[in-house]
TrEMBL record, chain A:
<feature type="transmembrane region" description="Helical">
    <location>
        <begin position="259"/>
        <end position="280"/>
    </location>
</feature>
<keyword id="KW-0813">Transport</keyword>
<feature type="transmembrane region" description="Helical">
    <location>
        <begin position="190"/>
        <end position="213"/>
    </location>
</feature>
<feature type="domain" description="ABC transmembrane type-1">
    <location>
        <begin position="101"/>
        <end position="311"/>
    </location>
</feature>
<dbReference type="InterPro" id="IPR045621">
    <property type="entry name" value="BPD_transp_1_N"/>
</dbReference>
<keyword id="KW-1133">Transmembrane helix</keyword>
<feature type="transmembrane region" description="Helical">
    <location>
        <begin position="136"/>
        <end position="162"/>
    </location>
</feature>
<feature type="transmembrane region" description="Helical">
    <location>
        <begin position="101"/>
        <end position="124"/>
    </location>
</feature>
<keyword id="KW-1003">Cell membrane</keyword>
Automatic annotation (TrEMBL), chain B:
<dbReference type="Pfam" id="PF00005">
    <property type="entry name" value="ABC_tran"/>
</dbReference>
<dbReference type="InterPro" id="IPR013563">
    <property type="entry name" value="Oligopep_ABC_C"/>
</dbReference>
<keyword id="KW-0067">ATP-binding</keyword>
<dbReference type="GO" id="GO:0005524">
    <property type="term" value="F:ATP binding"/>
</dbReference>
<dbReference type="Pfam" id="PF08352">
    <property type="entry name" value="oligo_HPY"/>
</dbReference>
<keyword id="KW-0813">Transport</keyword>
<dbReference type="InterPro" id="IPR050388">
    <property type="entry name" value="ABC_Ni/Peptide_Import"/>
</dbReference>
<dbReference type="GO" id="GO:0015833">
    <property type="term" value="P:peptide transport"/>
</dbReference>
<dbReference type="InterPro" id="IPR003593">
    <property type="entry name" value="AAA+_ATPase"/>
</dbReference>
Amino acid sequence: MLAYAARRLVLAVFTLWTVTVLSFIIIQLPPGDFVDAYMAQLSATQSNVSEQHFESLRRQYALDRPMYVQYLKWMSGVFSGDFGTSMMWRKSVLDVIGDRLAMTMVLSMGAIILTWAIALPIGIYSAVRQYSIGDYVFTFIGFVGLGVPSFLLALVLMYLGFTLFDSDIGGLFSPEYQLEPWSWGKVKDLIYHLPLPAIIIGLSGTAELIRVMRANLLDELRKPYVITARAAGMSERSLVLKYPVRVALNPFASTVGYLLPYILSGSVIVSVVLGLPTLGPLLLGSLVAQDMFLAGTIVMMLGALTVIGTFLSDLLLMWIDPRIRFGMVQ
Amino acid sequence: MQDDRQPILSVRNLKTSFFTDEGIVRAVDGASFEVHLGQTLGIVGESGCGKSVTALSILGIVPRPGRIVEGEILLRRETENGQSQEVALTSLGDSSSEMRAIRGAEIALVFQEPMTSLSPVHTIGNQIIGAARLHRKLTKQEASELAVELLSLVGIPRAEGAIDAYPFQLSGGLRQRALIALALSCDPRLLIADEPTTALDVTTQAQILDLLRSLQEQNGMAIMLITHDMGVIAEMADQVVVMYLGRVVEEGPVDTVFGESKHPYTQSLLRSIPSIHSTPKVQLPTITGTIPHPYNRPAGCPFHPRCPDVIPGVCDVHEPELQSVGDEHLVSCFLYHPVPEPSSQRSEATTG
């Protein structure tokens, strides 16, 4: 058990390191660097800046040195808690990410909780009442949910909200709280704004989860242990919840790991459309501007979330499934 | 003790059908038999002849799209003043609280797959305790002591440890014992064992049958043993019911059915048992053909296409009925009772 956890930890560190190297290389693959992109942007706005300024910028960020030197420089900073400077924002990367990371996590957690709270009961219902009218209705809604791109839904809802209710549903805060420091009012405002983006982001996941839960449970409902429980005189509701649902939930534990980074990165377009102050739009902007330290840090965080999430779901699976827990000991 | 002459369970003309998109499957088509306390009723027949569905019908847990369409299932229960009273299980709703109070408490089931008949993610103890507390007012502590007691009763070594074991940690034989312990948790008076030994090796099979027999001697319960194995029937049963395509074709005390079998199907089944006296390296006699597809049952006697003694013009036209051929010995075959009047049948056939 401990040996297993330790082995996973070593592997996790190695995976993370690979992620940083790969992301660093990939970010630098497009021709040119940040300064080139910056120059192009400046010349587009007809600003006049001397060659020397660009050269000093290059030296400042060590862009004139080979890639591995840049990487080592960045990594040595990372180990001392300095993730580099965002060239685009001219601030430390941590300062740029700061609040947005917290917002992203709040939103992601909201979307995950909403997804599970909606999908699991519907999935159970659909399986227990297979081929009932309710099952068909939910199946239909589910496929629509899978088929409609989330950003389109976001646009439609924003349009409807604007025309019908005259309210701006973009963002996570009302304009008056946008730049305010944290207060009770701002938290309430956040809670008020949170559900809609969370629904939009969680929609396709919800539809998928309904299908998976339904299929898993249908498999389990046909197992003989259900007949055993039924023959013992358990009521249908309590036996379904105690045995097959419990078994059908196991596969979900293994997907917890992918949820965190998926919702974070999968919602880039929706976040851009809705103007959410999350990491997604920031990542997009940093990639366009070739702001490699900012982009590298975000990609590294996504990698870290994936690795941590996978590790957590392994532990969770071990906790809830005795077959895995005891399989390990032997 | 109540009157032993009165059956604890009587099944009368039970018909259970499955209404599928492809058509109606008559899984049980008019089965009648009785089970007595302290006795074992063996139900035997090939796969797909409605044995398991009969068991599920008695418990009221026939899965959709199946349901009981006709017939009566009567359970004799003891009332508080020592009298006995018959309850028609078929008139209770499948999920009614009365029916659930009978399931598990009065009638218990040991199902045929020890590998999958227990939840893989709950401990043995958890499942036994859960079942026991459904019908008995027990604290968790008492229920857990009962579970240990039951597990040692069914011969599981180190029962104190076994309640914390998960099914996958036990061998097939031990799992079947655990399943029997679960079924016994509420002291049922009728135990339905549906192919309890099919998935087990021969040695374990003998042990489980011994266990069932000694449990019956201890608590006097009735056992309904469903199997396709004539050897198991010979060893265990007092009464035998032979089923074919959802119907009872022969019924009687075990010695009579084995010694003086009347129905060609029973005779074929008995012939196909390997004997220690038979000539070596000779093919076993088999029953020709296979069980007909349930959607197109043959007209007349359902066994006539495979029957060696078929009477053309009779067996493929008329349906035989279960009739007496001796002391407690019933057979449904035209070899032993008169054919219905041909004239009346023919006129019916032309008008119908």
